[in-house]
Amino acid sequence: MKCSLMALLENVATSLRKIQLEAGGNMISIQRACFRVWKSIHFSIHYHSSWHSRVVFTLLISPAFLAVFVSASRGLFVASDPGPRGGLSGAGGPLPGLSERELKLFLAGQDAIQEIDSVTGTVPDTGHGLGPRFNMDSCGGCHNFPAPGGSSPPVNPMISVATKNGATNTVPFFITLDGPIRRAFLRSMGGQARGTDLHLFTISGRSDAPGCDLAQPDFDSLAPQLAFHVPLPLYGDGLIESISTDTIVANLASNSTLKRALGIAGRPGGINGSGRFLWKGQGARLELLAAGGYQNEVGVTNALIPREDDPAPSCQFNALPEDTFDSSASNFIEGLPDFAKIAGFVRFSAPPDPIQDTPSITSGRTLFNRIGCALCHTPSLQTGESRSRSLNFRTVGLYSDLALHRMGPGLADGIPEGNAGADDFRTPPLWGLGQRIFFLHDGRTSDLLEAIQAHTSEQGGSEADKVIGAFNTLSEEQKQDILNFLRSL
Ligand code: HEC
Ligand code: HEC
Fold it and tell me: What distance lies between CA 127 and its chain's CA centroid?
């Protein structure tokens, strides 16, 4: 076959149109399509054409392709979230420099956080105290990814726990196999004070809970009033606990002119401004959060919170509290109640490791600071004095000011807690973001770009409105640098 010069040029023109259509604006697919077409033309010319077609191709068409390749790539490139990075988790380990005793406590807690609980402990390899109402049968079921102590994993364990050991729960509509773990709250409506939390599951039907007959909340009919929170990762929380309220307040007061110009305020969470944990910023002490999590999420009562949420007499199977000091244990640490061990694990866990900088990551970090993300997501804060060497006066690269901000109607969850109103949220630390799957308080997206855009809504009213406006004026390449930077954390 001989191909004439005209046919060749036509071929090239069609190919270029095809590239535009096929690629649909994505740089990688433009590159691939260009390369495929270039190769096939090069091949057919080389083997089938006259010498002058070959010369024309080399002199004219090749550079034309290159030019189209470059300009098409530039013009059509759209920034996108590269997704969770693979490789080692680099998370869930102990802080460096722990004392022997601290490390022992960390390790005991690392075991305890993964312990599965059944109702009476009669199911092999389980502790006791599950239910009567619960959300999961271990802390580690929810604080799970990319290593124990993390957040929601890719496969939602709430589906299987619903019917484990004969339980007869229906999976609520907001729980899906590839969606996030969610806790459910009733939004406070019409001036009602609290966002009551609703347990998803009961122990009814389980082989170790004979005679217990509790109904789940009717989630379908409650749907319009429901709000959700997804698990927060626990890594590095001991460092966060050691940052003093004074430091949080002083950081809020810094860059005040710039913050005022951008509409950024912020205040400490919790009662009397002592909070720094949880989506609404009301949590302060890790022991209390661990004891509260154990009692509320798993249903295991303990010395700090000794009563069951549901007192139905036919569903009580154990003496209270269920998680107690074990004086028969071989040493003090082993004898501690599980919640105290787990608090130790959380306190002495190291923050997740970021990956090494590339030029794009470095540029992303600069832009993140320049456009004002860093005015809320403070790159680092100092811990105060601590008895633990590993927590004492450390620089903590958390990317949060640990303070509450008004985020407007698009994010509002209607759950007032401590200092936080319906649309107030604590700036979440961004460390570990590189391996996180679900974003924002309700896990509404797995896409970082959507998480950023959700900071603002049409009605306005978010302290992040102006910063997101600045983000939107960046070039697609610059946005990509910010996304690459976030996925490096
Ligand atoms: C059903 C899933 C689930 C289980 C089980 C669970 N948690 Fe959580 N955890 C969450 C959710 C959801 C949040 C965020 C809650 C909020 O802000 O309203 C959270 C937040 C936390 C926080 C605050 C983290 C931070 O940095 O702000 C700590 C600490 C914590 N959990 C510890 C525990 C411990 C310890 C256990 C077991 C004793 C436990 N959790 C069991 C879902 C769970
Ligand atoms: C006014 C303070 C503020 C500014 C400015 C701000 N953020 Fe946030 N950011 C928050 C708060 C508060 C949340 C949690 C909102 C929620 O979950 O409803 C959040 C959530 C996030 C999340 C999701 C984190 C998670 O754990 O799910 C990412 C990612 C993020 N911000 C990145 C950015 C980037 C990038 C910028 C700059 C373009 C930025 N933020 C600017 C306060 C701020």
Answer: 28
Are the CB atoms for 141 and 124 separated by under 8 Å? no
Pair of tokens at residue 271: 């009662």
pLDDT at 22: 45
Return d(Cα 181, Cα 184) in angstroms, integer: 10
- The ligand with the least distance to the CA atom of 405 is 2
Q: Write the pLDDT tens digit of every residue in 189-238.
A: 655 545 578 999 999 999 999 999 999 999 999 999 999 999 999 999 99
Separation CA 240–CA 400 (nearest Å): 10
Residue nearest ligand 1's atom 13 by CA: 231
Q: Domain of 61?
A: 5-76
Looking at the fold, whether 343 and 363 belong to one and the same domain comes out as no
pTM above 0.90, yes or no: no
Same-domain pairing of 304 and 410: no
Shared domain check, 164 and 55? no
In the chain, how many H helices and how many E strands?
18, 12
Nearest Cα residue to atom 8 of ligand 1: 293
CA angle, residues 384, 388, 391, in degrees to nearest 5 = 45
Report CA(183)–ligand 1 centroid distance (Å): 10
| Domain total in the chain | 3
Q: Say if ligand 2 is within 6 A of residue 375 CB.
A: yes
Ligand 1, residues 139, 200, 235: which to mutate, most atoms within 8 A of Cβ?
139
Residues with CB under 6 A from ligand 1: 135-136, 139, 141-143, 181, 183, 229-232, 234, 237, 277-280, 283, 286, 289-290, 293-294, 297-298, 339, 342, 346
Domain end point (choices 15, 41, 76): 76
Residue 153 dihedral angles phi and psi, to the nearest 5°: -85, 170
- What CA–CA distance (Å, rounded) separates 402 from 269? 8
Quote the tokens at residue 107: 């390790």
For residue 10, what pLDDT is reported? 58
CATH of residue 387: 1.10.760.10
